[in-house]
Specification:
By secondary structure, the protein is α+β, with helices and mostly antiparallel strands. It folds into 3 domains: 2-27 and 275-376, Roll (Pdz3 Domain); 44-147, Thrombin, subunit H; 157-262, Trypsin-like serine proteases (Thrombin, subunit H, Beta Barrel), CATH 2.40.10.10. It is 16% helix and 35% strand. It has 7 helices and 20 strands. A 6-stranded antiparallel β-barrel has the order 1-2-3-6-5-4. A 6-stranded antiparallel barrel has the order 7-8-9-12-11-10. The longest helix has 15 residues, at 2-16. It is globular.
Protein backbone atom coordinates (compact mmCIF):
# COMPACT_ATOMS: atom_id res chain seq x y z
CA UNK A 1 0.00 0.00 0.00
CA UNK A 2 2.72 2.46 0.97
CA UNK A 3 4.79 1.69 -2.13
CA UNK A 4 1.78 2.22 -4.40
CA UNK A 5 1.04 5.52 -2.72
CA UNK A 6 4.63 6.70 -3.11
CA UNK A 7 4.56 5.82 -6.80
CA UNK A 8 1.29 7.65 -7.24
CA UNK A 9 2.69 10.75 -5.53
CA UNK A 10 5.80 10.72 -7.70
CA UNK A 11 3.79 10.35 -10.91
CA UNK A 12 1.39 13.08 -9.89
CA UNK A 13 4.26 15.33 -8.97
CA UNK A 14 5.86 14.88 -12.35
CA UNK A 15 2.61 15.75 -14.09
CA UNK A 16 1.78 18.70 -11.85
CA UNK A 17 5.33 20.03 -11.54
CA UNK A 18 4.79 23.44 -13.02
CA UNK A 19 6.87 25.67 -10.81
CA UNK A 20 10.17 24.02 -11.48
CA UNK A 21 13.01 23.34 -13.80
CA UNK A 22 14.21 21.21 -16.65
CA UNK A 23 11.54 19.61 -18.79
CA UNK A 24 8.72 20.80 -16.56
CA UNK A 25 9.40 24.49 -16.84
CA UNK A 26 7.09 26.69 -18.81
CA UNK A 27 6.91 30.31 -19.82
CA UNK A 28 6.90 32.85 -22.62
CA UNK A 29 8.66 31.63 -25.74
CA UNK A 30 8.95 34.76 -27.78
CA UNK A 31 6.81 37.69 -28.75
CA UNK A 32 6.27 38.67 -32.35
CA UNK A 33 5.48 42.09 -33.78
CA UNK A 34 6.27 43.86 -30.53
CA UNK A 35 5.84 47.59 -30.19
CA UNK A 36 6.46 48.08 -26.48
CA UNK A 37 5.96 51.42 -24.76
CA UNK A 38 6.47 52.69 -21.24
CA UNK A 39 2.78 53.47 -20.67
CA UNK A 40 1.21 51.79 -17.64
CA UNK A 41 -2.40 50.95 -16.89
CA UNK A 42 -3.69 53.23 -14.16
CA UNK A 43 -6.36 50.94 -12.74
CA UNK A 44 -5.49 49.91 -9.22
CA UNK A 45 -6.40 53.32 -7.83
CA UNK A 46 -10.02 52.84 -8.86
CA UNK A 47 -10.81 49.62 -7.01
CA UNK A 48 -14.41 49.29 -5.92
CA UNK A 49 -15.17 46.90 -3.07
CA UNK A 50 -18.85 47.76 -2.66
CA UNK A 51 -21.48 48.02 -5.36
CA UNK A 52 -24.35 50.46 -5.22
CA UNK A 53 -27.60 48.88 -4.06
CA UNK A 54 -29.46 50.34 -7.01
CA UNK A 55 -26.95 48.99 -9.54
CA UNK A 56 -28.54 46.83 -12.24
CA UNK A 57 -27.45 44.77 -15.18
CA UNK A 58 -28.73 47.55 -17.42
CA UNK A 59 -26.68 50.27 -15.70
CA UNK A 60 -23.55 48.09 -15.67
CA UNK A 61 -23.92 47.23 -19.35
CA UNK A 62 -24.52 50.87 -20.26
CA UNK A 63 -21.33 51.94 -18.53
CA UNK A 64 -18.99 49.55 -20.35
CA UNK A 65 -20.68 48.36 -23.54
CA UNK A 66 -19.10 50.98 -25.82
CA UNK A 67 -15.64 49.77 -24.75
CA UNK A 68 -16.31 46.16 -25.79
CA UNK A 69 -15.12 45.25 -29.29
CA UNK A 70 -14.92 42.37 -31.72
CA UNK A 71 -11.43 41.20 -32.68
CA UNK A 72 -11.02 39.87 -36.23
CA UNK A 73 -8.15 37.53 -37.12
CA UNK A 74 -7.11 37.51 -40.80
CA UNK A 75 -4.83 35.03 -42.52
CA UNK A 76 -3.04 35.74 -45.77
CA UNK A 77 -4.82 34.26 -48.78
CA UNK A 78 -2.67 35.73 -51.55
CA UNK A 79 0.17 38.12 -52.25
CA UNK A 80 -1.86 41.17 -51.28
CA UNK A 81 -5.08 39.69 -49.97
CA UNK A 82 -6.33 38.53 -46.57
CA UNK A 83 -9.17 36.29 -45.48
CA UNK A 84 -10.90 36.38 -42.10
CA UNK A 85 -10.12 33.15 -40.27
CA UNK A 86 -11.64 33.69 -36.81
CA UNK A 87 -13.32 36.20 -34.52
CA UNK A 88 -13.27 36.92 -30.82
CA UNK A 89 -13.88 39.73 -28.38
CA UNK A 90 -11.87 42.34 -26.50
CA UNK A 91 -12.21 45.41 -24.34
CA UNK A 92 -10.60 48.85 -24.65
CA UNK A 93 -9.06 49.69 -21.28
CA UNK A 94 -6.85 52.73 -21.84
CA UNK A 95 -6.11 55.74 -24.04
CA UNK A 96 -2.57 57.08 -23.71
CA UNK A 97 -0.61 59.28 -26.10
CA UNK A 98 -1.01 58.12 -29.67
CA UNK A 99 -2.68 54.80 -28.90
CA UNK A 100 -5.70 53.14 -27.32
CA UNK A 101 -5.12 49.70 -25.81
CA UNK A 102 -7.29 46.59 -26.16
CA UNK A 103 -6.93 43.41 -24.10
CA UNK A 104 -8.07 40.13 -25.63
CA UNK A 105 -7.10 36.45 -25.53
CA UNK A 106 -3.87 35.23 -27.04
CA UNK A 107 -5.68 32.43 -28.84
CA UNK A 108 -7.97 34.98 -30.52
CA UNK A 109 -5.06 36.56 -32.39
CA UNK A 110 -2.85 33.48 -32.72
CA UNK A 111 -1.34 33.13 -36.19
CA UNK A 112 -2.90 36.36 -37.47
CA UNK A 113 -1.31 38.00 -40.51
CA UNK A 114 -3.55 41.01 -39.92
CA UNK A 115 -5.80 42.04 -37.03
CA UNK A 116 -8.82 44.32 -37.10
CA UNK A 117 -10.99 45.62 -34.27
CA UNK A 118 -14.68 46.29 -34.82
CA UNK A 119 -15.94 49.03 -32.52
CA UNK A 120 -19.37 49.20 -30.87
CA UNK A 121 -20.70 51.32 -33.75
CA UNK A 122 -19.61 48.77 -36.35
CA UNK A 123 -16.56 50.69 -37.59
CA UNK A 124 -13.51 48.54 -38.29
CA UNK A 125 -9.94 49.72 -37.64
CA UNK A 126 -6.55 48.09 -38.03
CA UNK A 127 -4.92 46.88 -34.82
CA UNK A 128 -1.25 46.34 -34.00
CA UNK A 129 -0.05 43.58 -31.70
CA UNK A 130 1.79 45.02 -28.69
CA UNK A 131 2.52 41.75 -26.91
CA UNK A 132 1.08 38.35 -26.05
CA UNK A 133 1.42 35.72 -23.36
CA UNK A 134 0.42 32.13 -24.11
CA UNK A 135 0.50 31.02 -20.47
CA UNK A 136 -2.24 33.38 -19.31
CA UNK A 137 -3.89 33.47 -22.75
CA UNK A 138 -3.73 37.26 -22.87
CA UNK A 139 -2.72 39.69 -25.60
CA UNK A 140 -2.64 43.48 -25.95
CA UNK A 141 -3.45 45.36 -29.14
CA UNK A 142 -3.29 49.05 -29.92
CA UNK A 143 -5.53 51.10 -32.19
CA UNK A 144 -6.01 54.72 -33.24
CA UNK A 145 -7.25 56.58 -30.11
CA UNK A 146 -9.27 59.11 -32.13
CA UNK A 147 -11.97 56.48 -32.78
CA UNK A 148 -12.34 55.56 -29.09
CA UNK A 149 -15.08 57.17 -27.00
CA UNK A 150 -15.17 54.91 -23.95
CA UNK A 151 -12.61 52.91 -21.97
CA UNK A 152 -13.31 50.28 -19.32
CA UNK A 153 -12.22 50.32 -15.68
CA UNK A 154 -10.85 47.27 -13.90
CA UNK A 155 -12.38 46.17 -10.61
CA UNK A 156 -10.66 44.29 -7.80
CA UNK A 157 -11.04 40.56 -8.48
CA UNK A 158 -9.78 39.70 -5.00
CA UNK A 159 -13.01 41.22 -3.62
CA UNK A 160 -15.48 39.22 -5.69
CA UNK A 161 -17.81 36.86 -3.83
CA UNK A 162 -19.36 33.53 -4.73
CA UNK A 163 -22.98 34.19 -5.69
CA UNK A 164 -22.24 37.74 -6.84
CA UNK A 165 -24.03 38.72 -10.06
CA UNK A 166 -21.89 39.37 -13.15
CA UNK A 167 -22.27 39.97 -16.88
CA UNK A 168 -20.36 38.43 -19.78
CA UNK A 169 -20.19 40.73 -22.81
CA UNK A 170 -18.80 39.90 -26.23
CA UNK A 171 -19.44 38.52 -29.69
CA UNK A 172 -20.67 34.93 -29.38
CA UNK A 173 -20.46 33.16 -32.75
CA UNK A 174 -18.82 36.25 -34.26
CA UNK A 175 -19.40 39.96 -34.86
CA UNK A 176 -22.90 39.34 -36.21
CA UNK A 177 -23.88 39.05 -32.52
CA UNK A 178 -21.52 41.75 -31.22
CA UNK A 179 -22.24 43.35 -27.84
CA UNK A 180 -24.32 40.40 -26.66
CA UNK A 181 -24.67 40.23 -22.89
CA UNK A 182 -25.46 37.33 -20.58
CA UNK A 183 -26.01 37.40 -16.83
CA UNK A 184 -24.92 34.92 -14.20
CA UNK A 185 -23.14 34.62 -10.89
CA UNK A 186 -19.63 33.92 -9.65
CA UNK A 187 -19.60 30.15 -9.14
CA UNK A 188 -16.08 29.98 -7.68
CA UNK A 189 -13.40 32.60 -7.05
CA UNK A 190 -10.43 30.34 -7.85
CA UNK A 191 -10.32 27.26 -10.01
CA UNK A 192 -7.16 25.63 -11.35
CA UNK A 193 -7.96 24.38 -14.86
CA UNK A 194 -5.77 22.72 -17.46
CA UNK A 195 -3.98 25.16 -19.76
CA UNK A 196 -2.24 24.44 -23.05
CA UNK A 197 -0.87 26.55 -25.87
CA UNK A 198 -1.85 26.32 -29.52
CA UNK A 199 1.27 24.18 -30.02
CA UNK A 200 0.20 21.71 -27.34
CA UNK A 201 2.60 23.02 -24.68
CA UNK A 202 1.26 22.02 -21.25
CA UNK A 203 1.35 24.97 -18.86
CA UNK A 204 0.11 22.93 -15.91
CA UNK A 205 -2.98 25.01 -15.21
CA UNK A 206 -4.46 28.49 -14.95
CA UNK A 207 -6.10 30.07 -11.92
CA UNK A 208 -9.46 31.39 -13.11
CA UNK A 209 -12.86 32.63 -11.99
CA UNK A 210 -15.73 30.22 -12.63
CA UNK A 211 -19.09 31.65 -13.68
CA UNK A 212 -22.40 30.32 -14.94
CA UNK A 213 -22.90 33.32 -17.25
CA UNK A 214 -23.18 31.89 -20.76
CA UNK A 215 -19.82 32.03 -22.57
CA UNK A 216 -19.74 30.75 -26.13
CA UNK A 217 -17.16 30.65 -28.95
CA UNK A 218 -16.52 34.27 -29.90
CA UNK A 219 -16.90 35.51 -26.30
CA UNK A 220 -13.21 34.78 -25.73
CA UNK A 221 -11.36 37.97 -24.83
CA UNK A 222 -14.48 39.84 -23.73
CA UNK A 223 -15.00 41.15 -20.21
CA UNK A 224 -16.67 39.62 -17.18
CA UNK A 225 -18.26 42.63 -15.51
CA UNK A 226 -19.57 43.37 -12.02
CA UNK A 227 -22.70 45.44 -11.48
CA UNK A 228 -20.53 48.52 -10.96
CA UNK A 229 -19.66 48.20 -14.65
CA UNK A 230 -16.05 47.22 -13.91
CA UNK A 231 -14.05 44.42 -15.52
CA UNK A 232 -13.36 41.68 -12.95
CA UNK A 233 -12.17 39.11 -15.50
CA UNK A 234 -11.39 38.39 -19.13
CA UNK A 235 -13.42 35.46 -20.47
CA UNK A 236 -11.11 32.80 -21.80
CA UNK A 237 -12.47 29.26 -21.78
CA UNK A 238 -15.68 27.29 -21.78
CA UNK A 239 -15.96 23.77 -20.50
CA UNK A 240 -18.06 22.26 -23.27
CA UNK A 241 -17.82 18.61 -22.36
CA UNK A 242 -16.51 16.33 -19.67
CA UNK A 243 -13.97 13.56 -20.14
CA UNK A 244 -16.81 11.15 -20.82
CA UNK A 245 -18.21 13.36 -23.57
CA UNK A 246 -21.27 14.41 -21.59
CA UNK A 247 -22.40 17.94 -22.41
CA UNK A 248 -21.83 20.43 -19.59
CA UNK A 249 -23.60 23.79 -19.27
CA UNK A 250 -23.09 26.76 -17.01
CA UNK A 251 -19.32 26.42 -16.55
CA UNK A 252 -17.42 29.36 -18.01
CA UNK A 253 -14.04 30.71 -16.97
CA UNK A 254 -12.41 34.13 -16.81
CA UNK A 255 -8.89 35.33 -16.05
CA UNK A 256 -9.07 37.42 -12.82
CA UNK A 257 -8.68 41.16 -13.40
CA UNK A 258 -5.85 41.55 -10.89
CA UNK A 259 -3.83 39.07 -12.94
CA UNK A 260 -4.89 40.77 -16.17
CA UNK A 261 -3.71 44.19 -14.96
CA UNK A 262 -0.30 42.80 -14.01
CA UNK A 263 0.14 41.01 -17.34
CA UNK A 264 -1.02 43.84 -19.61
CA UNK A 265 1.18 46.35 -17.77
CA UNK A 266 4.20 44.15 -18.44
CA UNK A 267 3.22 43.50 -22.04
CA UNK A 268 2.83 47.21 -22.77
CA UNK A 269 6.07 48.03 -20.95
CA UNK A 270 8.29 45.16 -22.12
CA UNK A 271 6.42 43.37 -24.90
CA UNK A 272 6.83 40.04 -23.10
CA UNK A 273 6.47 38.30 -19.74
CA UNK A 274 9.43 36.92 -17.79
CA UNK A 275 8.44 34.78 -14.80
CA UNK A 276 10.52 33.56 -11.88
CA UNK A 277 10.72 29.93 -10.78
CA UNK A 278 11.72 28.29 -7.51
CA UNK A 279 12.86 25.14 -9.26
CA UNK A 280 10.67 22.35 -7.91
CA UNK A 281 8.40 19.56 -9.07
CA UNK A 282 5.39 19.34 -6.80
CA UNK A 283 2.13 17.71 -5.82
CA UNK A 284 -0.64 19.25 -3.75
CA UNK A 285 -0.84 18.09 -0.14
CA UNK A 286 -4.53 17.37 -0.64
CA UNK A 287 -3.57 14.65 -3.15
CA UNK A 288 -1.52 12.78 -0.53
CA UNK A 289 -3.32 10.21 1.62
CA UNK A 290 -3.54 10.76 5.36
CA UNK A 291 -1.44 7.64 5.91
CA UNK A 292 1.32 8.92 3.63
CA UNK A 293 1.22 12.35 5.27
CA UNK A 294 1.92 10.58 8.53
CA UNK A 295 4.47 7.97 7.45
CA UNK A 296 6.26 9.65 4.54
CA UNK A 297 5.93 13.39 5.06
CA UNK A 298 5.79 13.08 8.87
CA UNK A 299 4.16 16.50 9.18
CA UNK A 300 1.93 17.59 12.09
CA UNK A 301 -1.75 16.66 11.73
CA UNK A 302 -2.59 20.35 12.04
CA UNK A 303 -1.11 21.02 8.57
CA UNK A 304 -4.01 20.66 6.13
CA UNK A 305 -2.83 22.63 3.10
CA UNK A 306 0.28 23.25 1.04
CA UNK A 307 2.40 21.80 -1.76
CA UNK A 308 4.80 18.88 -1.41
CA UNK A 309 8.26 19.18 -2.93
CA UNK A 310 8.82 16.10 -5.09
CA UNK A 311 12.05 17.18 -6.80
CA UNK A 312 14.36 20.16 -7.07
CA UNK A 313 16.33 21.51 -10.01
CA UNK A 314 20.02 21.03 -9.37
CA UNK A 315 21.54 24.35 -8.26
CA UNK A 316 18.12 25.97 -8.64
CA UNK A 317 16.73 28.43 -6.08
CA UNK A 318 14.98 25.79 -3.93
CA UNK A 319 17.97 23.46 -4.08
CA UNK A 320 20.37 26.22 -3.01
CA UNK A 321 18.02 27.20 -0.17
CA UNK A 322 18.09 23.64 1.18
CA UNK A 323 14.57 22.47 0.34
CA UNK A 324 14.33 18.69 0.09
CA UNK A 325 11.98 16.05 -1.29
CA UNK A 326 8.84 15.69 0.88
CA UNK A 327 9.18 19.18 2.39
CA UNK A 328 5.76 20.89 2.48
CA UNK A 329 5.54 24.57 1.49
CA UNK A 330 2.74 26.38 3.34
CA UNK A 331 3.40 30.11 2.74
CA UNK A 332 5.28 32.64 0.61
CA UNK A 333 6.06 35.98 2.26
CA UNK A 334 3.55 35.14 4.98
CA UNK A 335 0.72 34.54 2.46
CA UNK A 336 -0.89 31.13 2.98
CA UNK A 337 -0.30 28.52 0.27
CA UNK A 338 -3.01 25.87 0.35
CA UNK A 339 -2.26 24.45 -3.08
CA UNK A 340 -0.77 24.95 -6.51
CA UNK A 341 -3.03 27.89 -7.40
CA UNK A 342 -1.92 29.88 -4.34
CA UNK A 343 1.74 29.09 -4.99
CA UNK A 344 1.50 30.33 -8.57
CA UNK A 345 -0.39 33.45 -7.58
CA UNK A 346 2.09 34.49 -4.90
CA UNK A 347 5.17 33.51 -6.89
CA UNK A 348 4.13 35.39 -10.03
CA UNK A 349 3.67 38.62 -8.11
CA UNK A 350 7.46 38.76 -8.04
CA UNK A 351 10.12 39.49 -10.62
CA UNK A 352 13.25 37.61 -11.56
CA UNK A 353 15.97 38.07 -8.90
CA UNK A 354 13.51 39.05 -6.17
CA UNK A 355 13.97 37.35 -2.80
CA UNK A 356 10.99 35.67 -1.12
CA UNK A 357 10.52 34.07 2.29
CA UNK A 358 9.21 30.51 2.08
CA UNK A 359 7.57 28.85 5.05
CA UNK A 360 7.69 25.06 4.99
CA UNK A 361 7.62 21.92 7.10
CA UNK A 362 10.53 19.51 7.14
CA UNK A 363 8.77 16.63 8.83
CA UNK A 364 7.54 18.04 12.16
CA UNK A 365 9.73 21.15 12.07
CA UNK A 366 8.29 24.42 10.77
CA UNK A 367 10.97 26.48 9.06
CA UNK A 368 11.44 29.64 6.99
CA UNK A 369 14.09 30.28 4.37
CA UNK A 370 15.01 33.13 2.03
CA UNK A 371 14.94 32.11 -1.64
CA UNK A 372 16.33 34.30 -4.43
CA UNK A 373 14.36 33.80 -7.63
CA UNK A 374 17.28 33.50 -10.03
CA UNK A 375 15.66 30.89 -12.27
CA UNK A 376 13.18 31.88 -14.96
CA UNK A 377 10.47 29.82 -16.55
CA UNK A 378 11.05 28.46 -20.01
CA UNK A 379 8.82 26.79 -22.56
Amino acid sequence: MAQQSVTKIILTGAIAGIIGGGAILYGQRGVENLQATTQKVNTKATKTTTISQNATATSAYGKISDAVVSVLNFSKSGINSYQESSEGSGVIYKKAGDAAYVVTNNHVIHGAAQIQVMLHDGKKVTATLVGKDAMTDLAVLKIDPSVVTTTADFGDSSKIQVGQKVLAIGSPLGSEYASSVTEGIISAKKRLVASTSENGQNYGGSTVIQTDAAINPGNSGGPLVNFQGQVVGINSMKLSSSASGTSVEGMGFAIPSDQVVDVVNKLVRDGKITRPAIGIGLVELSAVTVDDQKTLLKIPTSVNGGVVVMSTTQNGPADKAGLKKYDVITAIDGKEVTGQADLREELYKHNLNDTVTITYYHQEDKKTVKVKLTQKLES
